[in-house]
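During the no-cost extension, the postdoctoral fellow (Dr. R.K.) reprocessed legacy sequence entries with the updated structure-token encoder. One reprocessed record is reproduced below for audit purposes.
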Amino acid sequence: MAHLNYKSLTSCLLRSQLVGCAFNTRGLQNIGLAYALEPGLQKIYSHDPQGLQRARRSHLKFYNTHPFWNPLLVGIFLSLESKISRDLFPSASLPGVKSTLVYTLSAIGDSFFSGSLLVTWALLTMVMVMAGFFWPAILLGIIFFVGLQLFKMYIFYQGYMQGIVFVQRLRRWNLINWGTRLKIVNALLVLCFWLVIWPFQWHTLYFIGVCIVGLIMAWTFRRIQWSREIFLAVVFLLSLLLPWEQMGNNFVF
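Re-encoded structure tokens follow.
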């Protein structure tokens, strides 16, 4: 499966970073996806103009997913198009496979990346800055950024080389459950942030107690699948027990 050379693959990988730049209300990220795939499609269908036009039209349809997954999907689509060009995969099956992959990865990305990991990075940065560790906070941001780029390179390569098979490996990463664990860590980081900007007093124990009880309740409500509204109502009632006026007088930012 050596249809694409290093130059074409590198061009597709770099363009996958720009998928969101042509966001529109009709196809969302479809123009950006077509732009990212174009160097690879031209190489794959260099001797089949009709196949190239068919591929372009198929990828200009509605497309929207989490931006961190774009390199993976670009790699997988290039893999599938390479197989289609050699009659190893039916082109009629591509829309269904594409739709399933896009929506599944979008849900995982929103839960793990946007809803958990990025929040963890933001909270860690806030705690470090407020604690006076400015340069370590900058270093943490650089580490996260470099790690993200390496992750994108890895999933692009695996997506192109393994195609849909890599998605089965991706399931074993169990990102949804890891996202749940990170949300618990984020709750503790919020508590750390308050403790950093709020000089410790004995009444702070009330606040810590409510946070701990809230974490226990959140875990319990999730296990028994009770309504979130009930959880919020109980947390609100517990918050009324805090001496807010006294604590406000001691608040230091």
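The chain has a mean pLDDT of 84. The radius of gyration is 24 Å. The remaining legacy entries will be reprocessed before the final report is submitted.
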